[in-house]
Design a protein that fits this description.
0% strand, 8 helices, 74% helix, 141 residues, globular, mainly alpha
């Protein structure tokens, strides 16, 4: 049953992304908006609004927002967790943007935080974050 729900969610997300074309104007707006995504709710709103533009410089802006927020405000992880638990497509987006284009020092800091300061009820998310960081660091070498 869970697999069926996951497949349905992923298919629905794919259809939503296909219906959300990235025009030149939306791309300009998205690129400017990533600079102001300083909270998880702002990042989620940006994801919903601009996910069709998640490529190139805009994707790097999303990556910078996700990684910097994790590295600089780890105590807000429960807020991020609430969003990724409710919205599977946001979870995939969130983890995908912990990538090799991010600042290496911030990735290393996140790795330390995920392994040493993870709230007990978020162990699965911290494990996934750690895996994304490990992948990003191996690609950055």
């Amino acid at each position: 049953m869970r697999l069926a729900v996951l497949v349905f969610t992923l298919l629905a997300s794919s259809i939503a992304w296909a219906a959300d074309p990235c025009t030149d104007e939306r791309a300009r707006d998205a690129e400017m908006a990533t600079d102001s995504m300083k909270t998880w709710s702002a990042l989620y709103a940006g994801f919903k609004r601009y996910r069709g533009c998640d490529d190139g410089a805009i994707a790097e802006g999303f990556t910078e927002a996700v990684v910097h927020h994790l590295a600089s405000d780890w105590k807000s992880l429960p807020e991020a967790a609430a969003l990724v638990q409710k919205h599977l497509s946001f979870r995939a987006f969130f983890l995908r943007h912990i990538d090799a284009s991010a600042d290496t020092d911030e990735l290393k800091k996140i790795d330390t935080l995920a392994s040493s300061q993870c709230p007990k009820n978020l162990a699965a998310l911290c494990s996934d974050i750690g895996k994304s960081v490990a992948q990003a660091l191996s690609e950055a070498e």
